[in-house]
Amino acid sequence: MKPVKTLLLFMSISMAGVALLSLNGMHTGPAAPSFEREVFPLIKAKCNTKDCHNVQRNNPVFTTYDGIKPHARRILKRIKDRSIPMPPRDSGVVLTKEEIDTIEAWVNAGAPKN
Question: Mean pLDDT throughout 65-79?
Fold first, then answer.
């Protein structure tokens, strides 16, 4: 192959690779639920009750983003795995499918502080 054709081929492949890498980083799905507007009020109402995840109990404290973020995947697992249900069955607190979906979408988006 002639040097010019080789150079053009190399440049074309390089440009295609750059284009693919930039597309890979693009988020094309729906935006993550807002922690401040959707997720935190939900966790505050359903998890941060007087008998559960607050400073008065010996459980992880879910009163701030910094208290919730490290436990985000575990929270999702516990609310979806009904073998050890969260919230506990006897608490009288129930998470709707929509509420679980909101938490799941937030966790799957990386649990952003948005």
Answer: 94
Q: Is the pLDDT confidence value at 110 over 90? A: yes
**In the chain, what is the straight-line distance between the N-terminal and C-terminal CA atoms, in Å?**
53
Distance CA 80, CA 101 (A): 10
Q: Which letter, b or e, does each residue of 12-39 get, where b requires 16 or more Cβ atoms within 10 Å of its Cβ? A: eeeeeeeeeeeeeeeeeeeebbebeebb
CA-to-CA dists, residue 96 to 12, 20, 79, 89, angstroms: 51, 39, 10, 14
The answer on pLDDT for 6 being more than 80 is no
Which residue in 54, 62, 102 sits closest to 80, CA to CA?
A: 102
Q: Quote the pTM value.
A: 0.70
